[in-house]
Amino acid sequence: MALGLAYDGSSWQGWQTQPGGLTVQDTLESALAEFLNHPVGTICAGRTDTGVHALEQIVHLDTQAARRPESWVRGLNALLPASIAVQWAKPVSDSFHARFSALSRSYVYIVRNTRVRSPLMHGRVGWVYHSLQLDPMRDAARRLVGEHDFSSFRSSQCQAASPVRTLQEASVEQHGDFYLFRFQANAFLHHMIRNLMGAILYIGQGKQEPGWIDELLAQRDRRRAAPTFSPAGLYLSGVRYPDEYQLPSGDTVQALLTHVGLTWPTP
Asked: How far apart (Å, rounded) are the C-alpha atoms in residues 72 and 1?
């Protein structure tokens, strides 16, 4: 069974299970155990960090339970806290794997550039005090697209066997005080997006030139890059799979922007 999951990551210590149980995975598996009357393990498409949200996290689990998709959605949501909700459920073939079947993962960052932070948007959007310039950030983002060694942009705790990733999209849009950053890749390294954001925002503030991105990629040294940006405003926005699985899909980013109260121009 595949589940589409959305959650507010502000109050959770990330996705992955850990002692204490204050994670999305632990909470979901607890609800599943009650719903199915037996324990069950889950596998997700992308393990989000503490404070990172999900518009569409994909999860799969193995079960013999025969229930209608709407029963899964309503039953689990009745057992989950308000900050986590199943959006859809769909039976899938045994060949489906939430992590290994994924073709790409997409994230968005929403950043507000104002002199004073908004308490009503706390955790929902990132905040930058210093004035940002759009064109240098777009130039910097373009330099990241393609296959690169992203050693300068992964955390010291990253356990990935290789630092090479293929970034299929890195773009920046502006709408008033808000900036929308989009990232899509086959996979991401630990803290990779937050570290990329740190560098792009440094460039947007005029602390570095766009060409600094090329230097960082060549140096392969995390110590030379910008500080890791806050997880506030970072969302796992979608996961793409082969068409054969026919999983539900929609414009989750536009739904988020509408919820935040933004009318974003159509590209």
From this structure: 10
> Read out DSSP for 6-75?
EE-GGGSS-SS--TT--SHHHHHHHHHHHHHTS----EESS-PPTT-EEEEEEEE--------HHHHHHH
CB atoms within 10 A of CB 21: 12
Is the pTM of the predicted complex or chain greater than 0.85? yes
The per-residue pLDDT for range 30-46, each reduced to its tens digit, is 999 999 999 999 999 99
Taken in order of first residue, the domains within the chain and their CATH numbers are 2-101 (3.30.70.580), 104-232 (3.30.70.660)
From the candidates 26, 49, 94, 214, give the one annotated as an active-site residue: 49
Question: pLDDT tens digits for 128-165?
Answer: 999 999 999 999 999 999 999 999 999 988 888 899 99
> Is 149 designated active site?
no
